[in-house]
Design brief:
It is a single chain. The chain is of the alpha/beta class and 414 residues long. The protein folds into two domains: 133 residues, Aspartate Aminotransferase, domain 1; 239 residues, Aspartate Aminotransferase, domain 2 (3-Layer(aba) Sandwich), CATH 3.40.640. 43% of the residues lie in helices and 13% in strands. The strands form three sheets. Strands 2-8-7-6-5-3-4 form a seven-stranded mixed beta sheet, with helices on both faces. A three-stranded antiparallel beta sheet has the order 9-12-11. Strands 1-10 form a two-stranded parallel ribbon. Helix 4 runs parallel beside helix 12, helix 5 crosses helix 11 and helix 13 runs parallel beside helix 16.
Length: 414
């Protein structure tokens, strides 16, 4: 993109940016954040008298605490001067060894910590960077629709060509890989999946992932499986690429401490995958960032080794929240499909909103203005998310039920 530079060095009105950045747009969460900030400002103004407080149910950032063992380990390690130093790859070996031991316990698979494990600054960082490591501009990559925004963002950053595989609610959000012809599969270089699935809160089945592996092997496609919710299946067993015996031939899987161990703000995650994919992603990361502090890694190791049952404990909290919120919303006239994964409800627009012609983002904005409850509009997760809203179960039951009442009061005004 070219254009004139501003004439004054003191007032920068416009500067050129890349077409790649233009394709990213403002972003779903950024737009929602602007709406929330505007609502907070209204609360502080004279016009805000009588408005309900903001109830933010838009982000999957839990209110539940992390394991004490993890925080204690971080605090103890902070006293070491090494924790303030840059951390290169070799220094992450204790973390990688803990991950390999976890993979053996969790999935019964042997992993080489030297060549098949990589520390990440959050799993979103890994999924967004992977396309830069494995794709050339114009290469085709397959995403599920709906998809998580960083999956599409990573393709845009790599100047790749996204292809969407629509998921159908009537089919339980099962991906039908056979709906794509062989010629399309032959054109693909990468496919990105994620089950349990965000945003639909569907656990999924191992057979779905096994079918994806078969396609990847048949057509020489890299399979990236984003699995931060592996421990948050409320019904069924979460699928995993590591359960398939051919994972080393075609794939890489991303895991996170954000959801299972409530450490979202600490940005701790890891990838396990084929040696050549881990090497490629490591090489890319080498020019982008260093690794997390050794103190944070100490906390992650403690979470894996000393708090292995933490995910199961928080799962029961989410089960209660899910069940109570489903009843609360249906009582207020908003029908709910009960999800099989913790943390979210994936809600079709209520009948009153559809009758008024709301789209997802318009409904989200109006709901916030009228009730003080902020959800995430489904259109931010791709074309297949239009007509839906994502609600995060990230507050105590009493606050969630109060929010449902605020929503119901506003819906009745429609």
């Amino acid at each position: 993109m070219k254009g004139p530079f501003p004439s004054s060095s003191f007032r920068v009105l416009w500067m050129p940016i890349s077409e790649r950045l233009s394709r990213l747009g403002s972003g779903l969460f950024a737009r929602n954040d602007q709406r929330k900030q505007a609502y907070r400002q209204r609360l502080l103004s004279a016009a805000g008298a009588g408005l309900p407080p903001l109830l933010d149910l838009s982000l999957g950032s839990t209110d539940l605490p992390p394991p004490p063992a993890a925080i204690t380990a971080m605090a103890h390690a902070l006293a070491s001067p090494d924790s303030a130093s840059y951390c290169l790859h070799a220094a992450t070996l204790p973390f990688r060894e803990a991950v390999a031991a976890w993979a053996q316990r969790r999935f019964g698979t042997t992993v080489d910590p030297e060549t098949e494990v990589l520390l990440l600054v959050g799993s979103q960082e890994g999924t967004a960077h992977l396309p830069l490591a494995v794709l050339d501009p114009g290469d085709a990559a397959l995403l599920l629709d709906p998809y998580y925004p960083s999956h599409m963002g990573g393709l845009h950053l790599a100047s790749a060509r996204p292809l969407l595989l629509p998921l159908d609610s009537d089919q339980g959000w099962r991906p039908d890989f056979d709906r794509l012809p062989a010629s399309t599969w032959d054109s693909l270089r990468l496919m990105v999946l994620g089950f349990p699935h965000n945003p639909t809160a569907t656990t999924g089945c191992q057979s779905w992932l096994d079918a994806a592996v078969a396609k990847a092997l048949q057509h020489d496609v890299v399979l990236a499986h984003d699995n931060p919710y592996v421990d948050l299946a409320l019904e069924g067993e979460a699928p995993a690429l590591l359960r398939h015996p051919a994972w080393r031939q075609c794939g890489i899987e991303f895991f996170s401490f954000s959801k299972s161990w409530c450490l979202g703000g600490y940005r701790l995650a890891f990838a396990i995958g084929a040696e050549w994919l881990i090497t490629a992603l490591r090489q890319l990361k080498g020019v982008v960032d260093f690794n997390q502090s050794l103190a944070l890694q100490a906390g992650a190791i403690a979470a894996l080794e000393q708090a292995p049952h933490w995910p199961q404990q928080i799962l029961e909290v989410y089960r209660q929240r899910r069940d109570r919120m489903v009843v609360a919303l249906e009582t207020q006239g908003w029908p709910v499909r009960v999800p099989s994964m913790a943390l979210y409800l994936w809600l079709e627009l209520p009948p009153q909103a559809r009758a008024r012609g709301f789209d997802s983002e318009g409904f989200c904005a109006a709901l916030l203005e009228g009730s003080g409850v902020c959800l995430t509009p489904g259109n931010g997760f791709g074309p297949g998310g239009e007509g839906w809203q994502r609600l995060a179960l990230v507050h105590p039951v009493e606050q969630l039920e109060a929010g449902a009442h605020q929503i119901g009061s506003w819906l009745r005004q429609l």
